Amino acid sequence: MDIKEWVFENIADFNSKIKTEEDVKIKIVLPFLKQLGYEESDMAYETPISVQIGTKKLPDIRPDIAIKVNGNVQLIIDSKRPSITLAEKEVLQCTSYAKLVSTPPAVYAVTTNGLDCVVTNIYTGKRTSKIPSKNQLVIDVNKTRKKELSQIQLREVK
Length: 158
Description:
41% of the residues lie in helices and 25% in strands. The chain is an alpha+beta fold. The strands form 2 sheets. A 6-stranded mixed β-sheet has the order 1-4-5-6-7-8. Strands 2-3 form a two-stranded antiparallel sheet.
C-alpha cells in the first residue's frame, strides 16, 4: 500500500484537516510508518546531523524524520505541505540530506506532501512511490552493504 491509498482509507476530510508540513508529518507519515512496522525507537525528529565534506564542516542539517537501522541513519523523510507539488527541487533536497547524513549514506530518501510520495534509492537512483516496510529496509540495508563491500574488495584486488 502506498501513502495515498492509506490516506484515502484513514483520513476523512484530508483537505480540511491537513494543512501544514507538521500535519503531514504527525497525522499521516508517523501513523503510516507504524503500520509499516517502524517503532518510535527507530525514529528521530528534526535531530541535527553534522555534515563534513573533506575538512570542511557545514551547518547541521535537520531532516524531518531520520530512521536508523543498527545505529545508522538509513531512511530520511522530508515532509512538505499538501499544497506543495513535489518537483525535482524538493526531491533533490531530501536526497542530498540522505547522502550527507553519515558515512555510509542512508539507503533511501523520502519526500512527501501527504498524498504524493517520491522514494529514492540513493545507491541505484531508482524512484518509486512506496516507502519500504521496516523488514524491507533491513533487507535493503544488508544487501547494499554487501554490495559495497564486494566493490571495495574488488578494487583492493586490482
